[in-house]
Amino acid sequence: MSCRKSIHALPAELLEQIQEYVEGEVIYIPKKKSSKKCWGENTDTRGILAARNAQICQDFQSGMSVKQLSDKYFLVEKSIQRILRKRKIE
Question: Which InterPro entries does UniProt cross-reference here (predicted)?
Fold first, then answer.
């Protein structure tokens, strides 16, 4: 989040209107919904997790237990079960 002076970012008329409600305070103006990005859109984290989850499913189908998968991938057993359940639904 960046910070800009309102006198440089807003027209004088709009600034005067805002001062009717807020004066001398810092306010946050959120992005428009159309400008928001989904989680993981800026990085490759989404792809990395998808590949990891696919590997977890493959290991499970090869005979590894949930406990073994938990130890191998450093996840709690509930997370492994959730991943397996989600992949089964898809």
Answer: c-mor_Regulatory_Protein (IPR052411), Homeodomain-like_sf (IPR009057), YraL-like (IPR049739)
**Over the chain, what is the mean pLDDT?**
89
Residue pair 83/53 in contact (Cβ under 8 Å)? The answer is yes
The CA-CA-CA angle for residues 41, 38, 77, to 5°, reads 90
Question: Rounded distance, CA 90 to CA 83, Å?
Answer: 11
pLDDT, tens digit, for every residue of 18-49?
999 998 888 888 888 877 777 777 788 889 99
For 64, list phi and psi in degrees, rounded to 5.
-75, 145
**Residue 20 pLDDT:** 92
Q: How far apart are CA 45 and CA 87, in angstroms?
A: 18
Separation between Cα atoms, residue 69 and residue 60, nearest integer Å: 8
